Every structure is written in C-alpha cells, then in structure tokens.
Amino acid sequence: TSLTKAPTIPNSVTRMNDTFRGCTSLTTAPTIPDNVTYMSYTFAGCTSLTTAPKIPHLVDRMDGIFYNCTSLTGTITIDASPRQSSGLTRTKMQQLSRLTVTYYTT
C-alpha cells in the first residue's frame, strides 16, 4: 500500500489484529493506546517499518506482530506479558543482530 505513516489510533481501540498487515510502504508506526489487548499480525509484512512502537501492558496476544518486518532496527519495548508472542521469534535471521527485545512487566 502507499500508506507511509500510520494515523493516530483512538484510545477506545482494544483490538489491532492485522491493522497494518502488508502495508509495505509504512515507515512510521503509531503510538499504541494503553487499552489495546490484541495485536496479532498488526505489522506483519510491513517491510519498510524501521522502528517498533512500545507495546502496552494490557497486550495479551501478539503472535506474528512483526513477522517479515525486515527493516526494523533498534529496540522493541514490550510492557506486557503476552500469552502469544511467536512473531518475535519468526523474524529473518539477518534481522536479529539489529534488534533488541526488552520486556517490562508491571
């Protein structure tokens, strides 16, 4: 898609599954509202995304969240203890040296 910057996500949103999936031109992710609980495959296939947003503490499911996000660098900050987070381990091997995953639990 031609979407390069994500719109502001309203605070009332609780599920973001597949929201930006396949947006290959997306370079900037939105701030994720604190009320979001489901984020499975939210950014999957966003091959131009360079930085990951902070994942809020209520997120319980985030499997595949950054699957095939090959341009990500820096730190992925997760302020949650998700039950499903397989997407963080399904990134391409070349990407792993450029990423740090930090979990913070409240």
Characterise the protein shown here.
With 106 residues, the protein is mostly loops. It is built from one helix and two strands, in the order E-H-E. The chain has a two-stranded parallel ribbon. Helix 1 links the parallel strand 1 (74-78) and strand 2. It is globular and about 30 Å long. The model is unreliable at 89-94 (pLDDT under 50).
* Global shape: globular
Give the percentage of residues in beta strands: 5-15%
Query: What is the terminal-to-terminal distance?
Result: 36 Å
What's the total helix number?
Answer: 1
Break the fold down into its secondary structure elements and pairings.
Blueprint: E1 74-78, H1 93-96, E2 99-103
Parallel strand pairs: 1-2
